[in-house]
Amino acid sequence: MPDYSRRIDCTVDDSVTIVDDIKQQRSDDASRSMTLPPAAYNSDAFFSHEMEKIFHGDWIVVGHISQIPNVGDYFTLDIANEPLVITRDNDGVNVMSAVCLHRWAPIVSGSGNAKAFVCPFHNWTYDLAGHLVGAPYMNQAADFDRKQCRLRQINSEIFHGLIFITFAKGLEPLAQRLKPLNALFEKYSVAELDMAYTLDYDCPFNWKMAVETFMECYHHSAVHRTTLEDSFPGRLSFIGEAGPGWTFCHQPLRKNGDLSEVLTEGLLPLPGFDETDMRQIDLMLIYPSCLIGLNPDRLSISTLLPINKHMTIWHRLVLVSKATSAQEGFAATAAKMKADSLSIIDEDLAINAAQQRGSLSTLARPGRLSHLETTVWHLANYIRTRI
Ligand SMILES: [Fe+2]
């Protein structure tokens, strides 16, 4: 057990010490598991280490193909200080750096449909595959050949509709790592689902706190006492089988609960769901920060992208079956779903912000974990292997 008492300042920027402490916590016994040290949530140096080894070093989810169904569709996000744009052109999906080759302004933000992107700084213009098609008044720049210029292309793989990217070289192909998940993703036709809505919001705390909280239902009886707990009592949740790239938490509906408690009005069940599956919600983490919520009638895919040690952007995307999205009045259903989700989100945001404040205490130490939150330990083990 590391000697935390000698560390007066938990924000100490000593990444080596924190890495040593985390490695010393290694155990194969879930019943002895504990949280990472509080300093792992509060150190600039450790955050930089995570950016290098995890967010620049592994496969990261950026979204789902339903966000760009038509030629010209695009969306943008930033991963570890890398502004990216994801587009669809006639040849398929492109994942590119959005940083202008000229003087680095991102050429586009938000999402939409475009024929080309015009940099807002000096009107340099790029097509949907990132080729530079316009660069005004560059005719006197010696040896400048516009046709040789293209936005930096980012290595990507699409797994059942989920778009993954990596900045790292020589990683094991994603399809290989996630192969055991093929049957599950096929069962629910994840590649065929349609987008209901997207929701992006700021989380004023470390990215790991957001991931950990999504992945355990132990907190339902306190944080969601008046919302989720009645239908989905945290004590009934259980941890599923973890693999090299993922882990699961399962949350059954309360005993004798009615199916109406798990189904949303206006949504049809996802293809692949039968009556027995419908009495449970599955939560899945694909490391490091892709969170999937599998409900009988919808699938949420979130990617949590850190801005700094205490700020994370939550990009949430909710998918439904094509039969649901084709229904009359679906836009109103989707808007209502989005509005209804905010109360649960607010409850989680408030507790994680409080947790972050507590983690800065010089008296905070690693805490012991319940069997209901073994997924917190699974994330810690993933981090141990990456750092
Ligand atoms: Fe929660």
Which descriptors would you attach to this protein?
single chain; 387 residues; alpha+beta; Rieske Iron-sulfur Protein; Naphthalene 1,2-dioxygenase Alpha Subunit, Chain A, domain 1; seven-stranded antiparallel β-sheet; four-stranded antiparallel β-sheet; globular; binds fe (ii) ion
The count of DSSP E runs of length 2 or more, i.e. the number of strands, is: 17
Poorly predicted regions are 6-10
Please indicate the percent range of residues in DSSP E strands (runs of 2 or more): 25-35%
Instruction: Give the fraction of residues assigned to helices.
Output: 10-25%
Under the CATH scheme, which architecture of the largest domain would be assigned?
Alpha-Beta Complex
The biggest sheet amounts to: 7 strands, antiparallel
Count of separate DSSP helical elements: 9
Inertia-based shape: globular
Rg measurement, Å: 22 Å
Read across the widest sheet, the strand sequence of neighbours is 11-17-16-15-14-13-12
Q: What is the level 1 CATH name of the largest domain? A: Alpha Beta
Class derived from helix and strand content: alpha+beta
Bound molecule kinds, no repeats: fe (ii) ion
Q: State the end-to-end CA separation.
A: 19 Å
How would you state the average pLDDT, rounded? 94
Per CATH, the superfamily of the largest domain is Naphthalene 1,2-dioxygenase Alpha Subunit, Chain A, domain 1
Q: What order do the SSEs take from the amino end to the carboxyl end, as H and E? A: HHEEEEEEEEEEHHEHHEEEEEEHHH
